[in-house]
Amino acid sequence: MKSKVNEGFKVLPIRLSEKSTTCHELFIKKHAVRHHTDDKPPDRTLFVLNIPPYINANYLMKAFSSAGTVDDVILQTKQSQAGEDVETVGFQIAFIIFKESDGVKHALDLSTIDLIPTNDATIVTGIKKWTKEYNDQICDRDKLEEEVNNFVFKFDKIMENENKSAKGTESGGWTVVSNKSRRKGNARKESVKNKINERIAKQDERKYLADFYTFQKRESKMNHLVQMRKKYEEDKKRVAAMKQFRKFKPY
């Protein structure tokens, strides 16, 4: 398989299983930066891009061991550009540090590598990977219960010690009670009860919508006429009584 070069990176195909008919491509080149660090020596470090999220450092160490002895693999999800860290979504970048500088040269001469897992290590992808990550986030019930019980026990112990220290500071063994001002309530006199009842009656009147419906208006008019007739009859009787008992009778 003929290797390709893209913008200074060499394209390195990888296989994830023996039955794979397609290959995933990694982009590799020699690590070269202006400011060197001790953990990434430039003459022994290989810079790798486009690493799938399900590939870990152990897989990369085994895969590139064919080029030379790998001393360390540094995986990260951020790469620096012009002094700023840029987040890479999903895929990772890696710095593979070889024990000898010839390891970088041999790695750049590779045409392809295999990440075929062994019996004791399998690559989990897709739904199985997401299911495993979700299950790993779920806490063990017994372990969680034990942690909660330990926390509550420690908290109760602290509160007990604080209560003991507070009682020890009281003078003469007496419990000091602070005198908090209390607002005296109104005495339930007859006048107060009447005011309360009037207030409740006014609130009830506000809730009731008078003359809202047509039949309410009609009943209101009828009641008003009845009251006027009743008052008229009472006034007639009162006038008749006044005429009967008056002392001055001109005729």
Architecture overview:
The strands form 2 sheets. Strands 1, 2, 3, 4, 5, 8 and 9 form a 7-stranded mixed beta sheet that branches. Strands 6-7 form a two-stranded antiparallel ribbon. Among the domains are: 10-123, 2-Layer Sandwich (Alpha-Beta Plaits), CATH 3.30.70; 207-250. The chain has helices at 57-63, 102-108, 126-137, 141-168, 190-207, 214-244; strands at 4-6, 9-15, 24-30, 45-51, 70-76, 78-81, 84-87, 92-98, 113-114. The chain has 251 residues and is of the alpha+beta class. The model has no long low-confidence stretch (mean pLDDT 77). It contains 6 helices and 9 strands; from the N terminus they run ββββαββββαβαααα. 41% of the residues lie in helices and 19% in strands.
Write out key terms for the chains shown.
single chain, 251 residues, alpha+beta, Alpha-Beta Plaits, 6 helices
Q: What is the secondary structure topology, with strand pairs?
A:
Elements: E1 4-6, E2 9-15, E3 24-30, E4 45-51, H1 57-63, E5 70-76, E6 78-81, E7 84-87, E8 92-98, H2 102-108, E9 113-114, H3 126-137, H4 141-168, H5 190-207, H6 214-244
Parallel strand pairs: 2-9
Antiparallel strand pairs: 1-2, 2-3, 3-4, 4-8, 5-8, 6-7
